[in-house]
Amino acid sequence: MIDLVAAALANPINRAILTRLPMLGLRDAWLVAGSVYQSYWNALDGRNPTYGINDYDIFYFDDSDLSYAAEDTVIRRAGQVFGDLDAIIDLKNQARVHLWYRERFGAEWPPAPSARESIGRFQIRCTCVGLQPRSDGTLELAQPYGAEELTRGELRPNAACPTGTSFRDKAESYRARWPWLTIAEE
Predict the structure, then answer these.
(1) What sign results for the dihedral spanned by CA atoms 48, 55, 172, 184?
(2) SS3 sequence, the chain?
(3) 126 φ, ψ to 5°?
(4) d(C-alpha 20, C-alpha 107), whole Å
């Protein structure tokens, strides 16, 4: 069985992000979603670890300033830290998502108490994964719904995701890249 963390670290962009992420000095910062689970699916398929990954998402939590200006300051700082990587890096302060989510996605997003808690809100359950560098050099894995669905390639809707967008459209976009995935609508 392929290890999720090892597969994520086989992607050199993930490895660089996780090594440099502490340089941003962010509270509760995680590399989340596609760059982690898609690297795993690529390992299962024997593909290049970066295949099919559109961007690299970083969640962090800072409720001391919910302005876009504060988030933009972090985004610009991250541009300096990650600027040499051939990747789109997308940072989002999870403390302020509830301020813009309805306008963008057409549904209410309850305020999150932490970035880690937000990891459990992705639209497809098995995609709820994140890695956080610890001060001792190890990585913490957040996988609130366990590993079974991800390992089986089973795409299920996540009741914790308040979204107006189509689960099926998202699932089919994954199946276009990894045809062995199965869609299990409930």
Answers:
(1) positive
(2) CCCHHHHHHHCHHHHHHHHHHHHHCCCCCEEECHHHHHHHHHHHHCCCCCCCCCCEEEEECCCCCCCHHHHHHHHHHHHHHHCCCCCCEEEEECCCHHHHHHHHHCCCCCCCCCHHHHHCCCCEHHHCCEEEECCCCCEEEECCCCCHHHHHCEECECCCCCCCCCHHHHHHHHHHHCCCCEECCC
(3) -70, -15
(4) 34
Q: Where are the domains of the chain?
A: 4-183
Residue pLDDT tens, the chain, 186 long: 689 999 999 999 999 999 999 999 998 999 999 999 999 999 999 999 999 999 999 999 999 999 999 999 999 999 999 999 999 999 999 999 999 988 888 888 899 999 999 999 999 999 999 999 999 999 999 999 999 999 999 999 998 987 756 888 999 999 999 999 999 875
Tokens read off for 164: 């107006």
pTM of the model: 0.94
Q: Parallel, antiparallel, or unpaired: how do β-strands 182-183 and 154-155 relate?
A: parallel
Residue 61: CB partners within 8 Å, gap ≥ 6? 27, 28, 93, 94, 95, 112, 114, 115, 118
Beta bridge partner(s), residue 92: 59
How far does Cα 150 stand from its chain's mean position? 14
